[in-house]
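[recover] target loaded
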């Protein structure tokens, strides 16, 4: 004797629901992993400050020296162009994190970067640029994330 069992069909809507649920679970897991690995605001600010301070040190020590600018004249054009690029990199890095910093400090850093850029473009004496860059470094060291 042969027992015949009719083939059960799994409803198409149930298959679709299972696939949709699996996709939603995968998307949720992906978002969770992404948010867990994203640096915090404090970490982003610390990384940016370290990068800006390093760039300012390069500017002071290597790219804007008495050998590069003397008596308002550019002696070494490539080093002078590198100094201009340094301050632009500092400004770009600052723009990426400035929203994390409270307003009074934000305005101070904005002003300090702009003044330093203007000094470089005006080909001011390297000692003056070095002093302003050092002041900006100290200002950056004291930054904290907006509460």
């Amino acid at each position: 004797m042969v027992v015949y069992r009719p083939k059960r069909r799994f409803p198409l809507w149930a298959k679709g629901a299972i696939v949709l649920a699996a996709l939603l679970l995968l998307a949720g897991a992906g978002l969770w992993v992404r948010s867990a690995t994203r640096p915090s605001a404090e970490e982003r600010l610390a990384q940016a400050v370290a990068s800006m301070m390093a760039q300012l040190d390069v500017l002071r020590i290597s790219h804007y020296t008495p050998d590069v600018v003397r008596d308002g004249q550019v002696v070494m054009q490539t080093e002078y162009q590198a100094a201009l690029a340094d301050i632009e990199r500092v400004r770009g890095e600052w723009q990426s994190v400035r929203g994390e910093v409270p307003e009074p400090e934000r305005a101070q850093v904005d002003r300090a970067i702009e003044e330093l850029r203007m000094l470089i473009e005006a080909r001011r004496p390297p000692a003056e640029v070095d002093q302003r860059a050092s002041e900006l470094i100290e200002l950056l060291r004291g930054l904290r994330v907006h509460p």
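[recover] notes: The chain has a mean pLDDT of 88.
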